[in-house]
Specification:
Layout lengths: L5 E6 L6 E7 L8 H8 L1 H4 L2 E7 L3 H10 L4 E4 L2 H8 L5 E10 L3 E4 L13 E4 L5 H12 L8 E4 L3 H9 L5 E4 L5 H6 L3 E4 L7 E10 H6 L1 H20 L1 H12 L4 H12 L10 H12 L10 H4 L3 H9 L1 H7 L2
Parallel strand pairs: 2-3, 2-4, 7-8, 7-9
Antiparallel strand pairs: 1-3, 4-11, 5-11, 6-9, 6-10
Helix pairs in contact: 1-9, 9-15
Length: about 325
């Protein structure tokens, strides 16, 4: 795999455990389920050996899944839809953790309105990423043509903040604990507060290949169960969630964590359910640059076998019935 990556952890549950390698495309709360699962021993509970690898590019994550370097990923859906439009129909979404964007555009304090960004530099993680899609939608809704700005790829949330701090950009997209709330605490201001826009988008989805899912159904079932239990912890144990986020993101400011948590928890999916409008939004946007995407139906992108199985078995009802 011709990308740089960092192995975050390996949870080992003995020699007989099922094994999966998974990718994470952003270090954010909406993709924090594996961190929480590792913290409380959920991988061991389900006898699953799981290695999480962070790659700060959804396109590179997609390439890694297609090449077989890993079996599952948590990431935004746009690069998957683009790949499917190009013929990679083996790719599929198996669950969804977040179906709405919570990015914002944070700027230097002298900027007061979105139109003042014309001709200025705006930082985003990568072209084709969740943050890029948010920029397109948010600017258009504020009467600004994205083509009138210089869009600068920084690589990620932390890099966006660094670019703001050193003056490399005039504004940047932000989300999560390492994003907007941290930037505003350092004197920057929200120019566009994204959560108010309620933009539907498959922002944090669980991704696999159909062929691998068919061959490794039990391992994937375990992974979705782990993810679902970790999601419940995020909803019901704020202190543990804060502890994990603080450790992984090196953020100790309680106000920053509070602000980020309050933004994210409102749009996370407690039962990992899909929202058709979130995936249709990606299809529609992709179709503007690749007409082949217009032939894709939402049902073409989804494999519900694990979610439906867990629902029919009563797994989610039992999980959420527990105090």
């Amino acid at each position: 795999m011709a990308v740089g990556f960092t192995v975050l952890f390996v949870a080992i549950a003995g020699s007989a455990a099922d094994k999966l390698v998974g990718f994470q495309s952003a270090r954010t709360m909406s993709q924090a389920m594996p961190w929480i699962a590792d913290e409380v021993g959920l991988f061991r509970k389900y006898d699953l050996e799981f290695q999480l690898v962070y790659i700060s590019s959804s396109q590179s994550v997609t390439a890694a899944i297609l090449s077989g370097d890993g079996q599952v990923a948590i990431g935004g859906g746009e690069s998957i839809v683009r790949a499917v439009a190009q013929g990679a129909t083996d790719l599929v979404f198996i669950a969804s953790a977040k179906n709405m964007l919570t990015h914002s555009i944070v700027a230097k304090p002298e900027f007061k309105r979105a139109e003042e960004l014309r001709g200025k530099k705006l930082g985003l993680s990568r072209l084709g990423s969740n943050s890029h899609y948010f920029v397109l939608q948010a600017l258009r809704r504020n009467g600004v043509d994205p083509a009138d700005l210089q869009l600068i790829q920084t690589g990620g949330q932390v890099e966006n903040l660094k670019a703001l701090l050193n003056g490399a950009v005039d504004a940047a997209t932000m989300t999560g604990p390492s994003g907007g709330s941290r930037a505003t605490a350092l004197g920057f201001r929200y120019l566009i507060y994204g959560p108010d826009l309620q933009i539907p988008f498959g922002a944090a989805t669980l991704i696999a290949r159909r062929s691998v899912l068919n061959a490794r159904a039990l391992a994937f079932d375990k992974f979705v169960r782990v993810t679902a239990e970790a999601m419940k912890i995020m909803f019901t144990d704020k202190e543990l969630t804060y502890r994990v986020l603080a450790k992984q993101l090196r953020i100790s400011d309680r106000k920053v964590l509070d602000a980020a948590y309050d933004e994210e928890i409102k749009v996370l999916e407690p039962r990992l359910e899909f929202r058709n409008e979130a995936l249709q939004a990606i299809i529609d946007e992709t179709g503007k640059v690749d007409p082949r995407a217009n032939k894709i139906k939402v049902s073409d992108l989804i494999d519900r076998r694990i979610l439906d199985g867990l629902q029919k078995s009563g797994f989610f009802d039992k999980l959420w019935a527990k105090k």
